[in-house]
Specification:
This protein is an alpha+beta fold. The protein folds into two domains: 83 residues; 152 residues, NADH Oxidase, CATH 3.40.109.10. It contains 13 helices and four strands. Helix 9 crosses helix 11. It is globular and about 80 Å long. Bound molecules: flavin mononucleotide. The site of flavin mononucleotide has 11 residues, from strand 3.
């Protein structure tokens, strides 16, 4: 008995390592099967994300005050290739259309317009009968526009958000949920790929099924009236070094949603999805979430009551999390 007490912590730690390995292997398998590493441009979603990555390079080039007049051609050629695949397939996504617009602007730059290669590429674009309904490329953006973001007392906004676990009985209407997600869609993402997806339900049967796989919602989960599941599409990630990017982009989107809800007077509680492969698979069997979507977290959403009790969740001393960046 005494020996067991001594060696138990070792077994517990080793079990954690094994679990982590299981998780890494599961994530690797998911990256292998569902990410865009093969760069199959015939897959509509893969091509769209990939086009975003490429045309965003051109957008950046268009936005520099002193741009190098010779830059951008390799991206321009890549865009044209992706556009011809899209055009041939006849399946056009948002980023395909945006890519055409950005390439058109690039080819019409004063330094490019009269070049033979521009004329040739423009005539190729001319044969493609589609266009974007949105604006792309670069934008003049004054300091006054930036100043619109200044809050008189930012502390009021940031420090008044608390995770709430017991909400009022009122269901948050769809238009409020949608407005919050639309606000949150301004979240930055790698190359503006915007690989997130937000699943929402206010149906008790769906909510309770989803929450039954998540352990952190006990005991308040049974009263949750609105639930979101935030996912990121693995198809948007190509390079091996991007194997964690979906967690980052999805995490940022999740935070924006929480702040957007807060700005609309709606409270929330993030619910972790640091789960075992078994739980992740079980959730996918129960809910319509495509395999290429990585579940980032769930968010319980609802209105606060007049009087609430929340965890203080006090923050660590500032100096523990902030220091000067220095050279070694
Ligand atoms: C990714 C993530 C997962 C979380 N998961 C849970 C959870 O499963 N259950 C829960 O009650 N709270 C959960 N929380 C809420 C945290 O406990 C809470 O954010 C933290 O204590 C800070 O408190 P505050 O949000 O009120 O500032 C989670 C938070 C994050 C960011």
């Amino acid at each position: 008995m005494f020996i067991w007490k001594k060696i138990r912590p070792f077994f517990r730690s080793f079990y954690r390592l094994l679990n982590a390995f299981n998780g890494f292997f599961y994530d690797f398998k998911r990256f292998f099967y569902y990410s865009g590493w093969k760069e199959n441009l015939k897959d509509n979603q893969v091509r769209n994300y990939n086009s975003a990555m490429v045309y965003h390079g051109l957008e950046k080039s268009l936005s520099y005050k002193k741009r190098n007049p010779n830059s951008g051609w390799s991206n321009a050629e890549k865009i044209l290739h992706r556009l011809s695949v899209a055009n041939e397939k006849g399946e056009l996504g948002y980023h395909d259309k945006a890519a055409k617009d950005v390439l058109f602007q690039f080819l019409n730059l004063p330094e490019n317009k009269s070049l033979d290669k521009s004329k040739q590429m423009l005539s190729e674009l001319d044969k493609m009968d589609f266009q974007s309904n949105d604006l792309h490329g670069a934008l003049q953006y004054s300091i006054n526009n930036y100043k619109k973001g200044i809050l008189e007392t930012p502390e009021d906004f940031f420090l008044s958000r608390y995770s709430l676990r017991e909400f009022s009985k009122e269901v948050v209407p769809n238009n409020t949920i949608e407005r919050a997600v639309q606000l949150a869609m301004k979240t930055p993402s790698v190359c503006n790929r915007q690989a997130w997806h937000v699943f929402h339900s206010s149906e008790q049967e769906v909510i309770q099924k989803a929450l039954s796989y998540q352990s952190g919602n006990r005991p308040f989960g049974k009263e949750v009236k609105n639930l979101m599941i935030i996912t990121t599409d693995l198809k948007a990630f190509f390079a091996g070094s991007e194997h964690y990017q979906h967690w980052i982009d999805g995490g940022m989107m999740s935070m924006s949603i929480i702040y957007a809800l807060h700005s609309l007077g709606v409270a929330s509680c993030p619910l972790n999805w640091s789960q075992t492969p078994k739980a992740d698979k079980a959730l996918r069997e129960a809910l319509k979430i495509e395999n290429n979507q990585t579940v980032i977290m769930m968010i319980a959403v609802g209105y606060p009551e007049k009087a609430n009790i929340v965890c203080r969740s006090s923050r660590r001393p500032f100096h523990e999390v902030f220091s000067k960046l220095e050279l070694r």
